[in-house]
Amino acid sequence: MVVDDSLFQAIEELASRRGSSLSTVARDLVADALEMQEDIGWQQIAAERESSYEPESADSHTDVWGADVREVE
User: Fold this and answer.
1) For the chain, how many structural domains are there in total?
2) Which of 2, 25, 34, 66 is deepest in the core (most CB within 10 A)?
3) Residue 8 burial (C-beta neighbours within 10 Å; 0-12, 13-18, 19+)
4) Residue 73 pLDDT
5) pLDDT higher than threshold 60 for residue 19
6) Rounded Cα–Cα distance for residues 68 and 12 (Å)
């Protein structure tokens, strides 16, 4: 991976503080960034679904599962 000097220095400093290699820190940062992007995607889907939700047309628990939750003894 090629990065600019300032980004390289930041990764190098972080690696030094963690006692890790540059490649390990870079890998972890990329994995974190991808996870954040995935979270953003799920948030967008949730917001779209929430904006179109109409309680009066939603199925009830009984409609979906056939009965109310049983009590645990």
Assistant:
1) 1
2) 25
3) middle
4) 56
5) yes
6) 57
